[in-house]
Write a structure and sequence with these properties.
Blueprint: H1 3-29, H2 39-48, H3 66-69, H4 88-93, H5 104-116, H6 121-132, H7 134-142, H8 150-154, H9 157-160, H10 165-169, E1 191-194, H11 202-208, E2 211-214, H12 225-228, E3 229-235, E4 241-250, H13 251-256, H14 267-271, E5 274-275, E6 294-295, H15 304-312, H16 314-317, H17 323-339, E7 342-346, E8 350-351, E9 355-364, E10 378-387, E11 392-396, E12 418-419, E13 426-428, E14 430-433, E15 439-440, E16 448-452, E17 484-485, E18 488-489, E19 493-501, E20 508-518, H18 534-544, E21 551-562, E22 574-577, E23 581-582, E24 587-591, E25 597-602, E26 607-608, E27 610-614, E28 620-624, E29 629-637, E30 640-649
Parallel strand pairs: 1-2, 12-19, 23-30
Antiparallel strand pairs: 3-4, 5-6, 7-9, 8-9, 9-19, 10-11, 10-13, 10-20, 14-15, 14-16, 17-18, 20-21, 22-24, 24-28, 25-26, 25-29, 27-28, 29-30
Helix pairs in contact: 5-6, 5-18, 6-7, 15-17
Amino acid sequence: MTTTALKRKLLFLSLILGFVITAATIKGSDKSSESPDYSAKIQELYRLHGRALDTNALFLPAIRCKGCHGHDPMEIANVTLGGVDINLFDDWETSMMGLAGVDPLWRAKVRHEALVNPGHADELQTLCTSCHSPMGHFNAIYRGASHYTLEDLSSDSLGLSGVGCLGCHSIGTDGLGSRFTGDIPFDTSKVAFGPFINPMTGPMQLYINFTPTYSPHVSEGRFCSPCHTLISGTVDLEGNPTGQTFVEQATYHEWLNSVYPSQEKTCQTCHMPQIEDPIKIAVGYTALPGRTPFNIHSFAGANQFMVDLIKRNKTALGVTASDANFDSTLAAITYVLKHQTIDVELSDPEFFSDSVSFDVLLTNKAGHKFPSGYPARRAIVEFVLVSEQGDTIFKSGVVGNNGEIINYGGQGEPHHDIIRSENQAQVYEMLMNDVNGNLTTVLERAATYRKDNRLPPKGFTTTHASYDTMSIVGDALVDEDFNRAGATQGTGKDIVHYRVSLNGYSGNFSAFARVHYQAVPPAYLDEMRQFDAPEIGLFLNMYDASNKRPMLIAGDSLVQLISPLGISSVSNNFKVFPNPVRVGQAFYLNMNSDPDQVRMFSLDGKIVPVEVHKTSSGSVRITHSASAGVYLIEVRKNGKRTINRILISSN
């Protein structure tokens, strides 16, 4: 049979099957008719396939959803109008949601915490698995287990599904938005909530004994709250509870304290972007209407490092997803990091007697703090001045091949408003202290914050009702540029001022400002390295063989700036007036004596033609054809040069 004939036959069969299922659905929705009994059909289906159906299970492994919500070889379902495959299973499988149960850093960290506090290791693991392996965890607890540990997870297909399909679509509404730390309000009546009105119920009832049910809560921000605000109990260095709690993560509350809820922009808006194409969401059921808008299930966040690490070690981790699916996920994460997280703007230079000053303006574009989530994550601002010969004049925040900041003494860097030394770097992060006030990465020992200068989202204020779950801590709180414009909070911005001594250098130079994102800094693993366990050894071997350099996500530069150094004075030798001037308007130089040469430069070092006219009053008249912008005026006299600045305005 030819390929074309085969496709036609399959299409014909799918049309027939779609008609039958549609008829069954119509009959099942008629309250006057007896609902069909699918149980015998389900048992027969799994007998034929050699798989027993566990009717007591509250969930099913995600692989069971692949047949309908995976790739359609006929390219009818789960594709855009342009033929792009956007099937739910493949996009989910290589996301951190799909990989949550096999995440080697998470497993190593859970084992690390359990070894630090062995007296309640089982309770600790049970808490941690509630979010990373919710289906395995809650299925076991509901069926009478007292704990669900890493050992239980390792042989459980439900747990290994990570945050599988039903791990989200079975979440109910009971207390949603006020239940956190893995307290997930699952609906145990075997429903699968979705965003589409009047779902076709027959196929899912027939094959997996779950009923698709419309509910708007799956599209709301509170849907993510049970796992994206995490509050842990603090223990002392002997593992004894102190009675205090510590907010380890509060991404949901950070979103609440922003402008985005009022704009109806939810977690799903960014992490599950919508397309308007009508999508048939189940393979083989051509009678299904196209659903729109459709949420892409890539769940792209910021953890590019871990997705790439798992891809490179997928065999050792038992992951069977294709490299192509991993690459698609990595591309989605890269897009989010480079386009939806942060903007960087480098100011014009301000010259002083033997130094230059730059401002770096950073704007948070995310719907929560940046970085957010797991406390290892950090963003590093790199600022570099380079001479016209290519030599580095100044550098701050440069990261070496080992993944650590050069001239950096380890964790504990304070927040900076002004940076004057190469030993200083602006690092946006959250750091934790134990009960003795010492820096720790052991989450259960976290008692107080040493620092939290992560860049807040737009609209974030210290007066919000839940601010105590996401406080600004350290020098950022008194930084007048941090999330503030005067007395007004909520800008979502920060300005870092760089004041650089050039030590007599008088040539041209270039300036670069960049932001790098790092999910797992090397120093964060120092405490973990003191312990020996299979999970820890496996992850550290993978980490040590990985590329630990952070990802460049944003930047701005000014190339071939003209330095006014090595001059007797910057502004006293002559004044520019009027300043500013309008486009086309001449300006004057107030000089003590006639100049030997006058030149005008744009900030990128290009010469702007001017005409110089000496006047009877002793000043020098300059005519030009420059457009609006900031320019440098260079005056040479007796072998010395002096530079001043002029602003040309468009009005």
